[in-house]
Task: structure prediction
Amino acid sequence: MSSTALKRAYAYCGDMAKEHYENFPVASLALPRRLRRPVSAIYAFARTADDVADEGTAAPDERLATLDDMDRQLQAIERGTEPEGLLFAALADTIGRHRLPVEPFRDLLRAFRLDVTKHRYADFAELMGYCRWSANPVGRLLLHLYDAATERNIGYSDGICTALQLINFLQDLYSDYQERGRIYLPGDEMQRFGVGESHFRDRISDEAMHRLIMFQVDRATRLLRAGAPLGKALRGRAGFELRMIVLGGDTILRHLRAQRDDLFSRPRLTGTERLTLVWRAVKEAW
Result:
């Protein structure tokens, strides 16, 4: 592929990253310059597959077929043949240039297939299984980009990524249920705290729902903080970016903990909070 075509492919991925609001940085200026393009390609792949599972009016069979097509593009990359489209052109270059494993991308597709076919989780073990496919692969891919995919670092990363996924579930309780019919909370824990589907349908923020959410917030906090040492284990801008992500997640958790009247509202970081995150991320490196 020509350098001009490859530049166009990466520009497509970069534009996709910029178009979507995220509470956590994506290919931000804090990243080392050499990693911004590969990170945008990874993000674009995940975002595209997520949109296939969630957006539009396609029937489930059509969504699964499109995800299967994405899997076939990964197979083409593995074979060394040229894939189709701008996204996979950038992804092929990223995988080859940085010697990334393909399996994490395939794990992401497994998670998005579950989004199409599975809308309830019986217990936390089932939910953790989903997180292993939906969130942890991204962290592992980033560690490979940083040339830091040691067993210890992978353990830290899995904790952070799972926590961030759980945080996203807690932020999107209402929209996940109303727009997609999904509940990403363990069914046995809902039963234990006396919470039913009517809470999601009618947006009920009673004491039972509050206790259930605080239980989830406490768990996500433990996971996030267990993985936090990775922010100091990684050097330079990569470590700074990760500290920003962890601190951002912790700030969202504090917002969730403070909610009482409307447990279904989505917290967002303010401009002042974002500036504070930068200062704290720098300070924690000392």
Remarks:
- The chain has a mean pLDDT of 91.
- The chain has 15 helices and no strands.
- Residues 118-286 form a domain with the Farnesyl Diphosphate Synthase fold (CATH 1.10.600.10).
